[in-house]
Design brief:
mainly beta; 4 domains; nine-stranded mixed sheet; five-stranded mixed sheet; elongated
Length: 345
């Protein structure tokens, strides 16, 4: 008898342990979704959601209605069109209310904009503001509300809306306001454009400063204020006259004081550093090694300042060894300087 009872108890424990996880896993919670007149919520009614699950609800107003408010468990979420419950571990409610709306149709002619534009839904008793903006070169001609002129206003607000409405804006060309920017350049270079430049209000104007061969930019002044040795300057959103002037300074004569290294191996590339004066315009400056009776070994400039040039020169493996070559620098103005003393080994 005792063995039978003990066996029964053990079987009961096994059944409980087996069934309990399944029961726990099958637990669900109800989310009750309701909607007032003027629209729907989907899914609707008592929605069963597994423990820890996710459930999304979509709110759709009917024609001539808009969402007024959505409440989740009694707390307002605003005029949203969808809501998602995540990690559901309790029962919930979601309710949505709608309000009748009226359409205000907003249009704008050529030359400007009205914002918002198109068919704008507005809730019963609600308000809606419209902003009217002309484009450059235009001005507001007239704003009409329900066909009645309101003049050249920049905004209009509908209040206590109880019907559909229209608002339309028209624009007309406006004489451009011009401002003069006067540009000048000293000896040794140019500024482009030069002279008295007419610029429309709100527009931009760029100036390019270029030194002549043998000169460098000394300074650029804008309305009397130094901007440094810049090669260009842009006036943005011009709403007043301006002045821009540039001065230049002569460069010292082209010369080579020294260079390193003094030698290089045939078939290798040498990085040559040249110290001197009068260097400028890396794009139009050339460096090479020269020896009468042999082809020049041309270099590629990697950096250039007024007093230093760094370049790479590939040395042909066909060159004779032990001969002394000259370093040659040719400036943008066509002048060249030469300094001997480079040996190819």
């Amino acid at each position: 008898m005792r063995k039978s009872v003990l066996l029964f108890v053990l079987m009961l424990i096994v059944i409980v342990l087996t069934v309990s996880p399944a029961v726990a896993a099958a637990k669900s919670y109800t989310i009750t979704a309701t909607a007032g007149t003027g629209g729907t919520i989907s899914p609707y009614g008592a929605v069963s959601v597994p423990s820890g699950g996710i459930q999304q609800f979509t709110i759709t107003p009917q024609s001539e209605y808009i969402v007024s408010n959505v409440k989740v468990d009694g707390s307002s979420k605003g005029a949203i069109t969808s809501y998602t419950f995540t990690n559901v571990l309790a029962v919930h409610t979601i309710t949505v209310t709608f309000v009748r709306s009226y359409t205000i149709t907003a249009t704008a002619g050529t030359g400007g904009t009205i914002s918002p534009t198109g068919a704008v839904p507005v809730a019963l008793w609600g308000s809606q503001k419209f902003i009217i903006m002309p484009e450059p070169g235009f001005k507001i001609s007239d704003v009409k509300v329900d066909g009645v002129s309101k003049g050249a206003i920049t905004s209009y607000t509908f209040t206590n809306v109880l019907a559909t409405h229209t608002i339309s804006a028209t624009f007309t060309t406006s004489p451009a306001i011009l401002y003069i920017i006067t540009s000048t350049a000293g000896t040794g270079g140019t500024i482009s454009p030069l002279g008295s430049i007419s610029v429309s209000s709100g527009a931009s104007q760029k100036f390019i400063i270029t030194p002549e061969p043998g000169f460098k930019i000394s300074d650029v002044k804008v309305d009397g204020v130094s901007k440094g040795a810049m090669t260009s300057y842009i006036f943005k959103n011009v709403i007043a006259p301006h002045l821009i002037s540039t001065t230049f300074a002569g460069l010292p004569p082209l010369s080579i004081t020294s260079f390193t290294p003094k030698s290089g191996m045939r078939g290798n590339t040498v990085i040559l550093q040249i110290i001197g004066t009068g260097f400028y315009d890396a794009k139009n400056t050339a460096v090479c090694l020269s020896l009468s009776g042999y082809p020049n070994q041309s270099g590629s400039i990697t950096s250039l300042t007024e007093t230093k040039i760094v370049c790479t020169i590939p040395l042909s493996k066909e060159l004779p060894s032990g001969k002394t070559w000259s370093v040659v620098v040719a400036g943008p103005d066509g002048k060249t300087v030469t300094k001997p003393g480079f040996t190819i080994k």
